[in-house]
């Protein structure tokens, strides 16, 4: 496969990936990797594979391609390519929570002579290092790294990097319990997405919404937290971003726990988890999840008092009363009969979509 054909196939894969045909894109890129002898093309397609597996949460695969990319960069004998591949290796280890390795590879990046580390990629290296220090709870060094990355972003007018740093700073301040700043930085990230992110991946909007949801919950603004988390989950489902889906599920559980509606939280998590398994075609996991759900229904007696059907098995609207009875909304619309007496329209209503 020649250089021109390699370039065409890489672009074809990018178009498929951007249209959410991820598996087809991966197949195209893997064929390029198998057939192309063009080192530049191989290096580029390896970068695509690293990014794609990162966004799908396949971190071991991400690491595997990052290691191959380093070997390719060495064959090219180009310090800039070597820097990029070491950065991907650092990010891979960061995702796998190998934080000490991440810091070591980041230091290697910054120590490479004659590269773009001082300009284009230096901020990304500092960001990855900050995330690793945060994972180790070394808060002072994490903050120093984030501030350094933010300076790179401002000096180079890199709004995309600034957005990523703001999301990380939101996580940082949530952990140190400065909840006002934990909200400020994700809100800033959301503003950057609105102002500059027309051509960006939707993952930037999804991540800013997720971090806003976390901060709103910590501040007790549960309605706003739910709206942001639902927006983030919607994008994560569209793009197959399983790590973000998992984070959103945890956030939903925290929101419902803060509200005190523990039974409704189980139902919400069931509906979302089932949709994830079904969209991915994971039949074995789906069957196991449904079995666990029915066990939960039996244990908590989550049945409608009128129709007798289990609540939450289907994505239906529900109504909860102050007396803690939950029933299908269709019965509530027929006069408010709950099986234990009529309730007035003044009773509070909680609906679960």
UniProtKB/TrEMBL annotation:
It holds the Pfam family Rapsyn_N. Keywords: Metal-binding, Repeat, TPR repeat. Gene3D superfamilies: Tetratricopeptide repeat domain. SUPFAM superfamilies: TPR-like (SSF48452). One of its GO terms (cellular component) is neuromuscular junction. The keyword Transport does not apply. Residues 1-80 form the Rapsyn myristoylation/linker region N-terminal domain. InterPro entries: Postsynaptic, Postsynaptic_CS, RAPsyn, Rapsyn_myristoylation/link_N, TPR-like_helical_dom_sf, TPR_rpt. The keyword Nucleotidyltransferase does not apply. GO terms for molecular function: acetylcholine receptor binding; metal ion binding; protein-membrane adaptor activity. GO terms for biological process: positive regulation of neuromuscular synaptic transmission; synaptic transmission, cholinergic. TPR repeats lie at residues 123-156. This is Receptor associated protein of the synapse. It comes from Macaca nemestrina (Pig-tailed macaque).
